[in-house]
Automatic annotation (TrEMBL), chains A, B:
Cross-referenced Pfam families: T-box
GO molecular function: DNA-binding transcription factor activity, RNA polymerase II-specific; RNA polymerase II cis-regulatory region sequence-specific DNA binding
Domain T-box as annotated: residue spans: 23-251
Coiled-coil intervals, chain numbering: none
Gene Ontology CC terms: chromatin; nucleus
Name of the featured protein: TBX10 factor
Keywords for the protein's UniProt record, in alphabetical order: DNA-binding, Nucleus, Transcription, Transcription regulation
Subcellular location per the Swiss-Prot or TrEMBL entry: Nucleus
GO biological process: cell fate specification; positive regulation of DNA-templated transcription
Gene (UniProt): Tbx10
Amino acid sequence: GWAGEGLGAGGKNRRVCHAAARLEMGSLWEEFNRLGTEMIVTKAGRWVPQWPGGCRAEGTPSPSPSPCRRMFPTFQVKLSGLDPLADYVLLMDFIPLDDKRYRWGGGDGGRGSDLGVLSPSPPGRYAFHSSSWLAAGRAEPAAPGRVHFHPDSPAKGAQWMRQIVSFDKLKLTNNLLDDNGHIILNSMHRYQPRFHVVFVDPRRDSERFAHQNFKSFSFPETQFMAVTAYQNHRITQLKIASNPFAKGFRDGDPEP
Amino acid sequence: GWAGEGLGAGGKNRRVCHAAARLEMGSLWEEFNRLGTEMIVTKAGRWVPQWPGGCRAEGTPSPSPSPCRRMFPTFQVKLSGLDPLADYVLLMDFIPLDDKRYRWGGGDGGRGSDLGVLSPSPPGRYAFHSSSWLAAGRAEPAAPGRVHFHPDSPAKGAQWMRQIVSFDKLKLTNNLLDDNGHIILNSMHRYQPRFHVVFVDPRRDSERFAHQNFKSFSFPETQFMAVTAYQNHRITQLKIASNPFAKGFRDGDPEP
DNA sequence: CCCTTTTCACCTAGGTGGTAAGAT
DNA sequence: ATCTTACCACCTAGGTGAAAAGGG
């Protein structure tokens, strides 16, 4: 099985073994990570295509559940090392960082926290308002392990490398029964986003080489706690300060 | 050259020879066509990606030329007869309906009009306000013959047939030097939209069979006059009445 | 005179966290 | 007590024709 397609380092196909991904907005991710990133998860409303097609039922005031939420910061990467002429599929998944369930509490400055690294850097400085994430038992049964394909997949390596690849269509939900293909996560659990580059192998028996045809990337600064409402007020403030869609909640003069 | 891929009616590949396309919103198209459809064309502003990437130059108040315009009604088709497992590319182009240039004028009820069919159905009823399209010389040199690929291309036949295919990303411009890939048309000229289904032939020498691998569709009710501003007031009123984005200009109670 | 361009108010569509009420 | 949901005002982003200004 070693004929035809040369193998590179690590037993990977040469179409992926040189692939590299640089996380975009790295300093913003790190700023969030220092505080302990939180991502909102909600139940999904069924999408009602209002236009085009125009087939909205007349007396349908919509059940109006909250829409699913994107991630912020958005997961974006700059790719290099792909074969410009080969086809690739890009996708993401989310793996539990541990087998724990968390709760937000304390208020004693973080003593007893299992996640001291997520507390404010100068310990005690924000003591009055400080709380922290505490382990609170074993994780709930893992949600269905879904995957989000970048909607431009498949595409040539040249296309993927031309500009930043943005996963801004990815949405998070806590609805275990979600049927819209969104990423299902358990609230109050920690996750590590993973990014995968998959070479679309044109060979007939490509299944035999599946394990050689992908390369995965994990950026530790993108890990986060799934929540239904923000717990850490400093995370809230950083989201408001940095997410354009939250501009309505800014009051002071911003730093450009 | 007749081996391997069976040919169907008209010397077309069997993957496309049974393809059929039904125009959506047909009654709306016909309503416009009875009045003489007009489509706005504008010069394009260069697209400034404000987010994500955030690379907007600081003191750039944007040159603010008008954005390019979509078509309304949107060109939408329901497809059938494709091979569910084969790959297809869907695209549109626009061919001049004649070699004439037009002007809007008259005001005598349409006498002398070359396009009497586009005048109000009950002749004379709207005499006071009526004008019509008059031929006014030969067409200008044809604009660069561009093509618009449906952004989901390529995709499997099953995917294309699953739901209505909408060309709502297609934009029209009168800028002969447009470098955004928009469709370039001459104002005051008439056009016929065309729709093409192209089978992506996996054979090595597929170029040799290119003429067999596509099927084209023209719907006469979608022909239109390219204009920089609406001339026929009844077209304006029908656009306002039927385009959701023009709801701000409706005054009377609508008919649902 | 006729056609084109610019700017504008007013929409659709949807992404924010706040807030209060609901659930366990 | 803690977590979740529903609804809201306020944004971004961009698709409308009106009206005024510009150009040949």
